[in-house]
């Protein structure tokens, strides 16, 4: 009986090792396809079609990013979306030219990398540049919404000149730091860069037969759910007469709880973000909302006239409204 059990264990171990070797062979086969492929020159990497697709995707994803930044505060990673959509658009472009007999240069992996880099850089500027938070909050128009006395140094109106300089400094600061560490950390020490390796494997898989089919399926699913989200938003628009009504501000827990911003937002975008984000992030947002709006805000309201003046305007940052804005 012991010998039979040992044989069973050995067979399981052998099967496990075989599965590991198979997965390693499959992983190597994806990268091995392009191992001996010559890297094209920079003129074949920085193509006009790559920059055109990058511009279109940058505009589209920046709108999505700004919508998420202003309404929810969480922006999910756009690397996968940029890679899939970039491959789909350029592949459609090249196939159309190929059928017309006008294709001069086939699609390369480097073009997809250029597209993804440009799109991520553009959307990153929209996120880290402060467009959804402080950049336009410094304007005179935003300052006029407050009840406090305003001086010229209290605001700065957005202008193209200083905004370009500001974004140039904030965007290239990280690049200057990375260039100094690149040779030591990546070339000399050969440290593994997980995000870069994952993206490289992701782009390589597009140029295999199975990867191309998977990319097409992902684009179809993306279009399906994008259409559903758009139609649902259009349907909600019919019931929205003001900012505080409709399905976006549905008082699920009653009007008393609605006063403390406890309501349900029937937004397909928020549902999607919740599915993408880890559970720990969603739970922390839920507990933070309960603690901030359900416990601390009522306590601060009872201290009116003690912790802050009772004669303040409703939108004064010196009172309860300031806590609501900063929380």
UniProtKB/TrEMBL annotation:
Domain of life where this protein originates: Eukaryota
Against InterPro entries, the record matches this protein to: OPT, YSL-like
This entry carries the following GO cellular component terms, namely: membrane
What are the subcellular locations of this protein? Membrane
Question: Which GO terms fall under molecular function for this chain's record?
Answer: oligopeptide transmembrane transporter activity
State which residue ranges cross the membrane: 46-66, 72-93, 114-136, 160-181, 222-239, 271-296
Q: Which Pfam families match?
A: OPT (PF03169)
Membrane topology, from the record: Multi-pass membrane protein
Asked if the Swiss-Prot or TrEMBL record annotates the protein with the keyword Transmembrane, the reply is yes
UniProt keywords, alphabetically: Membrane, Transmembrane, Transmembrane helix, Transport
Cross-referenced PANTHER family: METAL-NICOTIANAMINE TRANSPORTER YSL8-RELATED, OLIGOPEPTIDE TRANSPORTER YGL114W-RELATED
- Indicate the family of this protein: Belongs to the YSL (TC 2.A.67.2) family.
The protein here is known as: Uncharacterized protein
